[in-house]
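Record type: monomer structure entry
Structure origin: computed from sequence
Chain ID: A
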Amino acid sequence: MKAIGYQKSLPIDAPNALMDIELPKPAASGKDILVRVEAVSVNPVDAKVRMRAAPEGDDYKVLGYDAAGVVESVGEDVTLFKAGDKVWYAGAINRSGSNAEYHLVDERIVSKMPESLSFTEAAALPLTSITAWELLFDRLGLTEESTGELLVIGASGGVGSIMVQLAKKLTNLTIIGTASRPETQEWVKNIGADHVIDHSKPLDSELKAIGFDTVKYIASLTNTDDHMAAIIEAIAPQGKMALIDDPTEFNIMPFKVKSVSVNWELMFTRSLFQTDDMIEQHKLLANVAKMVDAGDIKTTLASDFGAINTENLIKAHALLESGKSKGKIVLTGF
């Protein structure tokens, strides 16, 4: 089968940073389903793993987590799916990725994709939807009755784009998104943020300028290092913060005086540790699919980069690494 992989961790502009390769077609067993991949999207984690994890010897590592496709076959213990089902999912970080014609994935982290979306539109959503859902409802503990303010730092990115929509629909919070360019600020407004502020300026000052001395909840999705001083100032006493990126340093002591809860979110945790509640990702993806079909959430697809091949994946990685992307980048078909 066709796939895109790499053998060494290299800058994206280096020769062989990614390569078109041929691999054996895998077979499904146990709780795995074999999916014929129709579309994939690219996430910051793809670039991070490419630069941090190289395979041993002459082996290839295949990246890719988000996917939408058709079930080709199922393992003997599978109960949720059958051949022919159209599915979407975000995969597992400790397994071979979705940048391949066929992909094995555990049924417990998969659901049927929205009926109203194409494969291209659907592939934009799984990883970011899981991350946003878990951050909001598992880490911050939000409910439909939650009130106050939610500051989403990096609201125009993939996770931010779906988080704003979920929070707007499923809570009573005032949503404040951050974006620094006119086009990304407009994007954040259009997906439902009540206010948009500029994260190229001190966030605590930006909040005060729109009438908020503090906010109850903060979701820091990017560049947490750069915003830490402002976050400490802006978070309300007994507030809650959650983050998904990787600060080089993190001093939790400044949060103590305000009794702030600090949470990390990694959507791969359930699959990585095979947790007892791993099937919750199947359930939440099914809920998101229903919301999409009901018109409550729209796809965050922003760029269609064409076929799934090395040339287009390199362009996608480069755009993500530039920090200038908005929404999601999707590739469709081999």
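Annotation 1: The first helix runs from residue 44 to 52.
Annotation 2: The mean pLDDT is 96.
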